[in-house]
Design a protein that fits this description.
By secondary structure, this protein is of the alpha+beta class. It contains three helices and four strands, in the order ααβαβββ. The radius of gyration is 27 Å and the shape is elongated.
Length: 153
């Protein structure tokens, strides 16, 4: 009996070249489908995070206006909301190194619309209520008008 088992173990073979090639082709097809899908998921999550940040800014601005600390103002900047303790530091999901432009990102008080900018990108332009926004309305591309380019022109 022991001889039969050892004989069976010696007869085992590895994968043939064709089988190995088939596995590599299948893995290539799966990765060709998965990589673009994952890229889209990451982009959508960034857009959703910008909308959530804008909604937080609106809620913080409403709280600030109810406290009468900003009475008579037509807009409140992100910098003012953070400095006065209505918001903790808001992170930019698209660019963690530079963050949002705190002086130019603001909430318009009259209709609570948000302008959300970094140094080179305007994510939300203040034309729509962030609570009614869709992710397709968030712009993740750099502004070509404010980007001087490599020559500085």
């Amino acid at each position: 009996m022991l001889k039969k088992i050892s004989k069976l173990l010696k007869n085992q073979r590895g994968l043939t070249l064709v089988e190995l090639l088939a596995v590599v082709v299948i893995l290539g097809i799966i990765s060709a489908i998965a990589v673009p899908s994952i890229g889209g998921l990451i982009e959508n999550s960034k857009r959703d995070a910008h909308i959530a940040n804008a909604q937080m800014m609106v809620n913080a601005a409403k709280l600030a206006m109810s406290s009468e600390e900003f009475g008579g103002k037509t807009e409140i900047t992100l910098e003012e909301l953070e400095q006065n303790g209505y918001l903790e530091e808001v992170k930019n999901p698209s660019n963690k190194d530079s963050g949002y432009d705190k002086k130019n990102s603001h909430v318009v008080i009259a209709d609570y619309k948000v302008v959300l900018k970094s140094t080179d990108t305007t994510y939300l332009d203040g034309l729509k209520d962030p609570f009614d926004m869709k992710r397709s309305e968030v712009d993740l591309k750099k502004d070509t008008t404010t980007d001087p380019g490599p020559d500085g022109e």
